[in-house]
Design a protein that fits this description.
With about 450 residues, the chain is an alpha+beta fold. The chain folds into two domains: about 200 residues, no CATH class; about 170 residues, no CATH class. The protein contains eleven helices and ten strands. Strands 2-3-8-5-7-6 form a six-stranded mixed barrel. Strand 6 and strand 7 form a beta hairpin. Helix 2 runs antiparallel to helix 6 and helix 6 runs parallel beside helix 10.
């Protein structure tokens, strides 16, 4: 018998008893919907947490901080210094896309009549695009810049008017980042000898608010910030020169304190190829003695919680689908008892055991397929309701355009649910199909 004829016959047989078939399909619908919706909640949890974390920093970025050792600590426990040699070592790690060493200084700043404090970070301008520096207004730095800088979107909030009305000092209003664009900012730095220098910096770009990791900092060419840092460190102990007659009374720092030596960077930014590399490389750097941290480190804990939740919720859905499978088996067994004469005639006219087995397996598989398709459709509807109402209540204070989905159904989950429901139907039909082919045609004709 041809496969097409078997499918047509299987479909016709199912709808002989419409009520029973509909109830059996309904069980599969409920089971499929339960599995899809339950798993979608776990997937939505991970994705929403990823998006929230990405607002505070790229998941592909690692920040390697300058470390130091305590006096008397064993040599094998001492942390590595962040030097040019260390930067080259980090660049050689598999999965690293780009590395930018950085210097960091801070000082009082003045913008017109407003005053404040700025954190200046010197980085390699050539790596800014790879490091997820997205400029909303203006431009990013280039290698020829000297006193040009790029400011984070919230840097403007560091400034205040000292002549504002009394009693309003504690009030905070979000400023317009464009107030800084193409403006000159005077930054005052002081070294250990109480000497001052004023640097005039021109703001050529404002970073996007998509990454809050850079929102409060000002970025400049690394060579200029190194000169500023060297000035602020004049008068410290260690390798920095001290003018004659000034040796007594100057503050002395431990030799391994971060930033003390000229060849040590404050920290380094490392861009990896993807999130999986970020977790691996972050751990690799810590194993090598560096002080590394990344947003991807926190993601692992979230993924573990989501997997546990998916296992529990998916198990509940699987139990529901198991009950549906029992219903399919019961339906097919009842169908055999009702169709003993038909089965006997099929055997008498020459139908093979394979044809009969295929017929009953096709019927049970069709039940699973119909239930799976309708269950997936119902899952999308319930997912929409969960995101629109439950999600809206959970994230009611957020921008509607940036709402997170608490239920997310990816294409692979749809395919999994469809194959799984058909598989359940196929497995549930094995026992009735084998029972049908074992039926003796003579006894069936006699007792029918």
């Amino acid at each position: 018998m041809k496969s097409y004829d078997l499918l047509v016959l299987a479909n016709r047989n199912l709808w002989r008893r419409k009520g029973r078939t509909i109830l059996t399909v309904l069980g599969v619908i409920i089971g499929t919907t339960a599995i899809v919706v339950m798993l979608s909640l776990g997937i939505g949890l991970v994705e929403s947490q990823k998006k929230q974390m990405e607002q505070w920093g790229s998941l592909n970025m690692i920040r390697v901080h300058q470390a130091y050792s305590y006096p008397g600590e064993p040599e094998e426990n001492k942390q590595r210094k962040l030097t040019d040699e260390a930067i080259e070592e980090i660049k050689a790690i598999e999965g690293v896309l780009a590395v930018s060493p950085a210097y960091e200084v801070g000082g009082e700043a003045k913008l017109g009549r407003k005053t404040g404090y700025l954190q200046l970070i010197g980085i390699d301008a050539a790596t800014m695009e790879l490091m997820d520096f997205n400029v909303e207004h203006g431009r990013i730095l280039n290698e020829n810049d000297q006193f040009n800088v790029v400011a984070g979107c919230r840097v403007i909030d560091n400034f205040h008017d000292p002549k504002q009305q009394p009693g309003r000092e504690m009030e905070w209003e979000q400023g317009d980042p464009l107030e800084l664009l193409d403006k000159r900012v005077a930054v005052t730095l002081m070294n250990q000898r109480q000497q001052k220098r004023i640097y005039s910096l021109n703001v050529v770009g404002i970073l996007s608010d998509k990454s809050m990791e850079y929102a409060w900092s000002v970025f400049a060419p690394i060579k200029e910030i190194k000169k500023m840092r060297d000035f602020t460190m004049q008068g410290m102990g260690g390798n920095h020169p001290v003018p004659p007659g000034k040796e007594v009374g100057l503050p002395q720092l431990p030799r391994d304190m971060p930033g003390q030596e000229d060849d040590q960077y404050s920290f380094a930014l490392v861009r990896t190829q993807d999130v999986s590399y970020a977790k691996y490389i972050s751990q690799e750097l810590r194993d090598r003695g560096f002080n590394a941290s990344s947003m991807a480190d926190n993601l692992e804990g979230i993924e573990n919680v989501a997997r546990q939740m998916q296992a529990v919720l998916g198990g509940i859905g699987a139990i529901t689908l198991l009950v549906a499978a029992i219903g399919i088996t019961n339906t097919m067994v009842m169908s055999i008892y009702e169709r003993t004469r038909e089965i006997a005639i099929m055997k008498v006219v020459g139908a093979s055991f394979a044809d009969i087995r295929t017929l009953f397996l096709a019927e049970s598989s069709l039940i699973g397929l119909m239930g799976g398709m309708l269950g997936i459709g119902l899952s999308y509807f319930l997912s929409y309701l969960l995101n629109k109402y439950v999600g809206a209540m959970m994230f009611s204070r957020m921008d509607p355009e940036n709402m997170f989905q608490i239920s997310l159904i990816p294409p692979w989950l749809v395919l999994f649910a469809l194959v799984f429901s058909m598989g359940i139907g196929l497995i549930a039909g094995l026992y009735p199909a084998n029972r049908a082919i074992k039926l003796d045609p003579i006894d069936a004709m006699r007792n029918s």
